[in-house]
Amino acid sequence: MTGFDTLAIVDWSAGKRAPDRPSKDAIWIGVTRSGVDQDPVYCRSRIEAEAWLAAFVEAEAQAGRRVLIGFDFPFGYPRGFVRRITGSDDPLVFWDWLEARITDNAAGENNRFEVASSLNRLFDGPGPFWGKPREDVWPDVPYRKTGIAYEFCAERRACDNAASASSSCFQLFFNPTVGSQALMGLPMLARLRQRAGVAVWPFQDCSDAPVVLAEVWPGLIEAAVKEGGADEIRDRAQVRLLARALAGLAPGRLEAMLADTGPEASEEAWILGTGHAVELVAAAQGVVGLTPPPLRNDCFALPAGVDWTPVDDALALLRARMTPVVGVETVPLMQAAGRVLADDLVALRSNPPHPNTAVDGYGFAGGAIGDGPQVLPLVDGRAAAGAPFASAVPEGAAIRVLTGADLPDGVDTVVLDEDTRVQDGQVAFHGPLKRGANTRKAGEDVTADDIALYRGRVLTPADLALAAAVGHGTLVVRTRLRVAVLSTGDEIVEPGARASEGQIFDANRPMLLSLCAGFGFDMVDMGRAADARDAVRASLDAAADRADVILTSGGASAGDEDHISALLRETGAMQEWRIALKPGRPLALGMWRGTPVFGLPGNPVAALVCTLVFARPAMAALSGAGWSEPQGFAVPAAFEKRKKPGRREYLRARIRDGRAEVFKSEGSGRISGLSWAEGLVELPDGAVHVRPGDPVRYIPFGSFS
Fold first, then answer.
1. Is 571 a residue whose pLDDT tops 80?
2. Is it true that the peptide bond before 176 is cis, omega within 30 degrees of 0?
3. What is the Cα–Cα distance from 148 to 126, expressed in whole angstroms?
4. pLDDT: which is higher, 439 or 579
């Protein structure tokens, strides 16, 4: 695929006609042509915008420029929806279906709710479309989502989940309203794609198309938009910066992003740039070294009405909202162990690069089909690893070969040294011997241009061997996640120091620092902060300057001296997740100057459990390694335990004689139980009575790594 000369980004609107004066919630179009930003275009209505786009496509074609136009609304719907409406899996058929039914005028008056009503009537029960200005209109469109099952198709597309986009193409009212934007935008695209040279990504072959239409999401460059300042209209900044970002990518990167889609893309569409937010932000900022985007201040917010949160629900919320916050760098291969691979590693050459022998022996062509003795004349010379035989071996002759040697021309089979006898320039052995025996094919491990390792992988010594074998001497990796650890409380003193009456030694900080260092993160020891608001604030400020994520222990509840939670509440970015969990029920999550904060319980056992269960997978996602889930094993119990319903429980445990033992006490302050344990037994949310011999889920501590 060749590159694009012009990049255009369209911020669409489903609203009424906008005012004369440029404003938000209108239609904005950003254009970067030949690397130069153009003044964004302001359109007051969809009709005006469609006319501008048609003229734009025509002008670019006459100038011989190749164009990519991105639109900020869904191009497709979850798998199964289009077939229910049209009888076809082709989303472009549904585009035409909408184009024949949606009406619009210069004032922005349209019939999208009537069309949504007719669509909803094709389904049993309410939905899937929902949301409207008033409850007393359009009875076939529910006012709220409550009661919609989404059994026939999913509520959100795979690309929405992959990009952590919060919107659903079925939501027509209440922000974000991409559902209405799609209903009003797809008919326009249906007409636009009828023009000569226009192709739709990823539904059509776009490799040589002069004009490519693609779905985009400005949220991918949110960090760059925030840095742009408050003076510019946000919609204007989004289209300007996203066009700049796509135009400013390194050679071949835009083409790579167009090739990077999920398997559902042919039916559901895909958001261009998904998984490449860090790179796009850097391109929008004009930065060569990639700068991580900060998390949104509401990334920890629970849905309205949620109070006690089951463990699985809390993990699902974290998983949907945690995205990488670290940049990338190139390091020598020898220094890359434990680092997170930033992009797919493509093999520069095959492994093995040439056919070779797997054993010491004698090579010849064609195998030995017959039974009984086989005698072949030997050619002078031999083939060894690093010293190939330069000539061809004649048919019916053999040559001495050593393990790892490239097979000479004319050789495709090797007989094992121990199965031969050599005398008077001849080699004898017994057949039959299958063609290709004792040889390795070129590329039988990895073929050149194939992906050898996928991005997000934490590189192991074996990975380095593979990377070296396929031709790489340097690797592009994520910078290490920097984790700051802070303890709070007047009662805490440094380990080994003199403790006064009522004071305790800081056990959490050394535990958390060493635990997270074992995860491969760079640790920042923030020491201890006294129970004084200014002291805690100063420590959080310093931690935010030095780290990508902050772990605190103590001070996260709602008491008079719980300054961590109080300060986070002052910023408006504090969420106290009351997890249905034992130990460690409260978990304070918040943002401090753009840095995520995990407020852990003060009790060491609860602090460790919350770190392993919640902070560990979240930090893996923040580091670029993706969400990680520990591997548990079903083993017989060596204990008896009755548990009431309502909370998930984690018991300190270890395996002895193939059975799971648990620590004698469940107290959160019993640190000796952490030292005694080698893992956790996880008991489910519901009531359970475990008896000796019953299977329980055991998670070794090492599984969290």
1. no
2. yes
3. 6
4. 439
CB 435 within 8 A of CB 312: no
With a cut of 60, say whether residue 117 has pLDDT above it: yes
Nearest to 435 by CA among 352, 355, 350, 354: 355
Whether the bond between 432 and the residue before it is cis, its omega within 30 degrees of 0, is yes
Decide if 703 contacts 679 (C-beta within 8 A): yes
Taking only the tens place, the pLDDT of each residue in 418-446 is: 999 999 999 999 888 888 999 999 998 89
- CA-nearest of 331, 328, 333 to 343 is 328
Helix H or strand E encompassing 623: none
Instruction: Inform me whether the pLDDT recorded for 502 exceeds 80.
Output: no
CB 429 within 8 A of CB 372: no
What is the spatial distance between Cα 251 and Cα 247, in angstroms, rounded to a whole number? 10
| Distance (Å, whole) CA 512 – CA 523 | 9
Whole-model pTM: value is 0.55
Q: Residue 98: how many CA atoms within 13 Å on its side-chain side? A: 29
What is the DSSP code (8-state) at residue 296? P
Which residue, 357, 416, 419, is CA-closest to 389?
357
Q: How far is it, in rounded angstroms, from Cα 97 to Cα 86? A: 8
> Could you please report the per-residue DSSP string of 196-244?
TTEEETTTS--TT-SEEEEE--GGGGHHHHHHT-SSS-HHHHHHHHHHH
- Does residue 457 register a pLDDT over 60? yes
Q: Are 91 and 266 in contact (CB under 8 A)?
A: no
Strands 67-71 and 211-215 turn out to be parallel
Number of C-beta neighbours around residue 101 at 10 A: 15
Characterise 141 by phi-psi region: left (phi > 0), alpha (psi -120 to 50), beta (else).
beta
| Phi, psi (deg, nearest 5) at residue 462 | -65, -35
CB atoms within 10 A of CB 442: 17
Q: For 151-156, which contacts have Cβ atoms below 8 Å and span 24 or more sequence positions?
A: 152/80, 152/81, 152/84, 152/123, 152/128, 153/77, 153/78, 153/79, 153/80, 153/81, 153/84, 153/128, 154/78, 154/79, 155/78, 155/128, 156/78
* pLDDT score of 367: 66
Min mean pLDDT across 60-69, 116-125, 585-594 is at 585-594
Place of tokens 């670029």: 624
Residue 310 CA to its chain's centroid (Å): 23
Say whether 636 sits in a helix, a strand or coil: strand
Q: What is the mean pLDDT of residues 97-105?
A: 96
Distances (CA, A) of 50 to 45, 84, 187: 9, 29, 10
